[in-house]
Structure formats: structure tokens, C-alpha cells
């Protein structure tokens, strides 16, 4: 598997379960990596930016909930699916409240598990795409001149050209020129698209 590929990271202290799950995912064409414990996974987790985590809840050393908390602390944003045994539904609810993508009860149905994992991988991919778009928008924002940024901030907060001109001590025609430059530099075809860019990049509103 290529480094950085979107893999299913399986964490379970039961070797037979790890082998079974690895075979299932490989047969379905999904890259997979298996770990015998949460600490073993944490040794590589910080460098992961894609994929999903499939972890057992009941494990020695560190259980699935503790692993989930540690991943959040490390800023690892991979979707987490927890595997629970009979009677562990309250634990699964805790995991969901803490941000888990899903939980699967043992013994699990292969099709249901594959569906949950594929949904988590899709969520991870979309998350990466949003991050990449936010980076592109941030780079475009950085290319604006100070005056263009002032116009941008006021445009995305809903102000009209005349109001912007009054605030900046300029003429509506000059604001119109700055607006055109802002739209061109940002690659926005319309004001709604410019607003969506600002929201996606977390651009602050003017004070």
C-alpha cells in the first residue's frame, strides 16, 4: 500500500479478529493496516491524514474510548468506528457522543461493516477536500492588497458599494474597481460564491 493511502486502521488485541478483518477489507479492495493495541497505533497516528479507524472498545492498556480521546487531543481527525460486544451499547453511545462516526456490534455482519467503513472513508475524503479548498482560498486572500481586503470583508458581510465607499472614504466607482479585482483574484464568479469562500476559509468579519 502506498504511504499516505486512505487505509482502514484496525485496532484489536485479538489476533484472529485482526486477520479476519484484514482479509475482509483486502477482499473488498480496501487498503488495511492492523495493530495489536491502541499504543501501537498511536505511535503512527499523528502522521495520518486520511483513512478511518476501526477499534475494539474492550482492550488492555488503553480501551477504545481512551484511544478516541487521545486521537482528539493529538488533532488526528480520522473518522472512528468502534466495535462493541454484547451489552456494550452504553459504551458505544459514549463513543458517539465523543464524536465517533459509527459503532458496530459483534458478531457483525460483513456487509454492514463494509458499508460503515466506506461511509467513514468517504467522510475522510470530503474532509480532506474541504481542507484543501480552505487552503486555496487562504492563499488567494493573502494575495489581496490591504484595500482589497477591506472591500472583501465588507462585501461578504453584506454591505453595498455605496456604503463601503462611505466607510472607506472612497468613491463608489473606485470600490467597483476594487470589487472587480477581488472577484478576479479570488476566482469567484458571483457574490454568493465569494461569501461561501469566506465562510469556508473562516475569514473574520470586519469589526
TrEMBL record:
Pfam families: GerE (PF00196), Response_reg (PF00072). The modification 4-aspartylphosphate is found at residue 56. Keywords: DNA-binding, Phosphoprotein, Transcription, Transcription regulation. Residues 137-202 form the HTH luxR-type domain. Residues 7-121 form the Response regulatory domain. NCBIfam families: PRK09390.1 (NF006900). PANTHER family: DNA-BINDING TRANSCRIPTIONAL ACTIVATOR DEVR_DOSR. This is Response regulator FixJ. It comes from Craurococcus roseus.
Amino acid at each position: 500500500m502506498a504511504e499516505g493511502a486512505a487505509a482502514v486502521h484496525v485496532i484489536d488485541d485479538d489476533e484472529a479478529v485482526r486477520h479476519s478483518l484484514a482479509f475482509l477489507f483486502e477482499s473488498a479492495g480496501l487498503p488495511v493496516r492492523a495493530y495489536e493495541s491502541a499504543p501501537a497505533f498511536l505511535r503512527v497516528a499523528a502522521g495520518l491524514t486520511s483513512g478511518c479507524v476501526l477499534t475494539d472498545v474492550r482492550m488492555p492498556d488503553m480501551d477504545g474510548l481512551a484511544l478516541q480521546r487521545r486521537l482528539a487531543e493529538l488533532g488526528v481527525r480520522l473518522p472512528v468506528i468502534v466495535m462493541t460486544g454484547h451489552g456494550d451499547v452504553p459504551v458505544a453511545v459514549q463513543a458517539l457522543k465523543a464524536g465517533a462516526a459509527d459503532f458496530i456490534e459483534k458478531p457483525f455482519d460483513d456487509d454492514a461493516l463494509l458499508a460503515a467503513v466506506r461511509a467513514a472513508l468517504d467522510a475522510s475524503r470530503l474532509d480532506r477536500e474541504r481542507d484543501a479548498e480552505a487552503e486555496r482560498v487562504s492563499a488567494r486572500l493573502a494575495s489581496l492588497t490591504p484595500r482589497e481586503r477591506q472591500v472583501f470583508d465588507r462585501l461578504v458581510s453584506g454591505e453595498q458599494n455605496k456604503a463601503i465607499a462611505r466607510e472607506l472614504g472612497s468613491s463608489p466607482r473606485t470600490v467597483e474597481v476594487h470589487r472587480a479585482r477581488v472577484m478576479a483574484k479570488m476566482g469567484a464568479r458571483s457574490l454568493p460564491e465569494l461569501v461561501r469562500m469566506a465562510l469556508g476559509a473562516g475569514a473574520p468579519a470586519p469589526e
